[in-house]
Amino acid sequence: MKVDLKYKLFLLLSFIVTIQACVPDVEPPVTKPLFYQPDGFPPTSGQLVNNPVTYYGFSLGKKLFYDPILSLDSTISCGSCHQQFAAFAHLDHKLSHGINDLEGTRNAPPLFNLAWHSNFFWDGGSSHIDMQPIGPITNPVEMNESLLNVLVKLRRSTYYPALFKKAFGSDSITTQAMTRALAQFMSSLISANSKYDQVKTGTATFTVDEQNGYTLFKSKCESCHKEPLMTDLNFRNNGLDLHFADAGRARITLQPSDSGKFKVPSLRNVAVTYPYMHDGRLNSLSKVIDHYRSGIIQSSTIDPLLTGGNMSITDAEKQQLLLFLNTLTDPAFLNDKRFSEK
Ligand code: HEC
Ligand code: HEC
């Protein structure tokens, strides 16, 4: 009787083991490629050449992105300040809040279409997407952790070594492998399916008001917020201040002529990324348009396109512009389960 039970148990166990061994270790079917070149987009910056996106690299990057283990007290993950529903910006936070609720000095920008950027941060302080994550991890008011310590924690974990092995063929956990995985995840955050994109590909049409807003946008905004990325990725001064509390691009180049210049933000998904500007000073798109209508300050480094002063935009045109800006929201991207934490 006793033997019989043991034998049954043995059979059951071998059955489980066999089943597990049969589960194929292949990539689950992916409906869309993780990285692709959307129709009409310019060539990428080329920074992914040595780090092509793979399913396992992306998955590891996503795990790291949402893991608070990357911060000193394991309370803050990249995803704490970069929230998917806000196009990976920090919704309703003027300045970012990091570890111990410490406040940074800048507004967290949204994260998408980063494979087209060659410079990161408002001042372009990082010039490679592989290196960029080191900034927030070690920043005392963001995650305040040392790279060495992050690596120690990852190596100690029961599952990370296997995930690194799947992604990069070796279970040795290095800074480079970690930042490359994060870069693969972030590069896959592609937003190219807004109503605006659908109009461009002929699968949707603008209303009359949206079309009028678009025409106005092309004449007043597009030279800096260039289509189709809705940014020319240059550093410019759009007339917010006379004196610069934050020197912006000049902090990196040390050129006084770069003072008060910031990376032109993309206007894709802009309706969900408030508040606005590098320091989050404006909390609505209505106020942003009012800035261009009545608040442009002529300082020493004002952009040549704005030396003519305030733009003449009527109240009716403002409404049309707002309607157009709303067509840049990409619900498929904001709700894409492949990018969400759970
Ligand atoms: C405490 C909030 C906070 C955390 C945590 C955080 N970020 Fe950020 N992130 C910001 C802020 C603020 C900026 C803008 C900083 C600047 O311009 O100086 C930024 C900028 C960026 C940018 C540049 C985007 C662009 O358009 O140039 C990327 C990419 C990024 N973060 C990725 C990450 C990753 C990866 C992590 C985790 C390792 C992370 N962030 C953690 C707040 C945060
Ligand atoms: C001369 C170039 C230029 C022109 C023209 C321009 N912008 Fe901007 N825009 C910028 C820059 C630079 C910033 C970021 C400034 C900062 O944060 O210091 C910005 C920021 C914004 C933001 C905030 C986005 C965010 O994520 O914080 C919005 C919205 C915006 N602009 C809309 C417009 C609209 C609408 C027009 C036309 C009416 C326009 N811009 C014209 C350069 C320009």
Blueprint of the fold:
Blueprint: H1 2-22, H2 55-65, H3 78-81, H4 134-138, H5 147-156, H6 160-168, H7 175-187, H8 195-200, H9 208-220, E1 235-236, H10 250-253, E2 262-263, H11 285-295, H12 315-326, H13 331-334
Antiparallel strand pairs: 1-2
Helix pairs in contact: 2-6, 2-7, 9-12
The structure holds heme C (2 copies).
Count the E strands: 2
Number of helices: 13
Overall shape: it is: globular
Under CATH at level 1, the class of the largest domain stands as Mainly Alpha
Assigned CATH superfamily of the largest domain: Cytochrome c-like domain
Low-confidence stretches: 15-24
What's the architecture of the largest domain in CATH terms? Orthogonal Bundle
Ions, cofactors and other ligands present here are:
heme C
CATH topology descriptor of the largest domain? Cytochrome Bc1 Complex, Chain D, domain 2
N to C succession of SSEs: HHHHHHHHHEHEHHH
Q: How many domain units?
A: 2
Strand portion, in percent? under 5%
Q: Structural class of the helices, strands and pairings?
A: mainly alpha
Q: What helical percentage do the residues reach?
A: 25-40%
Q: How do the strands of the widest beta sheet line up side by side?
A: 1-2
Based on CA atoms alone, the radius of gyration comes out at 24 Å
Largest sheet: 2 strands, antiparallel
Q: For the residues shown, what is the average pLDDT?
A: 92
Overview of the molecule:
With 342 residues, the chain is mainly α. The chain folds into two domains: 55-190, Cytochrome c-like domain (Cytochrome Bc1 Complex, Chain D, domain 2); 195-332, Cytochrome c-like domain (Cytochrome Bc1 Complex, Chain D, domain 2, Orthogonal Bundle). Helix content is 36%, strand content 1%. It contains 13 helices and two strands. It has a two-stranded antiparallel sheet with strand order 1-2. α2 (55-65) packs antiparallel against α6. Mean pLDDT is 92; it is low at 15-24. It binds heme C (2 copies). One heme C binds next to α11.
